[in-house]
């Protein structure tokens, strides 16, 4: 049980209402983890936002607010080259669906921009995966183009081989 003393401090953070609902679901866990009191209330001056207040000793209160802030969902927007969009989405949306389920994020395209929303750590992992996929795709394209468009040396070898066959 938390007892109030003269040394209690209060810190607050303003979050989207949708994020506040997530915090509210985890409020008991946060209270037990940091041994602080936590309140979630609508921000009267900012429609669509809520205020999360943490009260307790100075260290625990700061840790609780830092933890909440670090785990709040974020949105990352990445510009994607139009040629790569189809590869990222995948056949029938398989790749984008896999990203969503594997990293527990929400992902959507708006024109040439891929938006990722979720916990910062999950978004970072998804971003790395997308970058790796993009590099792999570009390498496969280069290999295919190389086969289709041989270098000058390769062309000479092909001509020499054709002459040998004649």
From TrEMBL:
Top-level taxon: Eukaryota
Keywords: RNA-binding
A molecular function GO annotation: RNA binding
Occurrences of domain K Homology (ranges): 72-135
Pfam families reported for this sequence: KH_1
Annotated signal sequence range: none
PROSITE patterns the UniProt entry points to: KH_TYPE_1 (PS50084)
Protein name: K Homology domain-containing protein
Source organism (scientific name): Acrobeloides nanus
């Amino acid at each position: 049980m938390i007892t109030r003393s003269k040394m209690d401090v209060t810190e607050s953070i303003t979050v989207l209402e949708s994020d506040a609902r997530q915090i509210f679901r985890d409020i008991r866990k946060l209270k037990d983890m940091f041994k602080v009191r936590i309140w979630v209330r609508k921000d009267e001056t900012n429609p669509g936002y809520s205020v999360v207040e943490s009260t307790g000793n100075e260290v625990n209160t700061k840790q609780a607010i830092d933890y909440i802030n670090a785990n709040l969902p974020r949105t990352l927007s990445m510009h994607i080259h139009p040629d790569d969009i189809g590869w990222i989405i995948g056949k029938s949306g398989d790749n984008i669906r896999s990203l969503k389920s594997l990293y527990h994020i929400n992902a959507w395209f708006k024109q040439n921009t891929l938006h990722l929303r979720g916990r910062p750590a999950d978004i970072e992992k998804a971003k790395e995966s997308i970058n790796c996929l993009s590099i792999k795709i570009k390498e496969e394209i280069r290999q295919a183009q190389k086969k289709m468009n041989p270098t000058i040396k390769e062309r000479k070898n092909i001509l020499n081989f054709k002459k040998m066959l004649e």
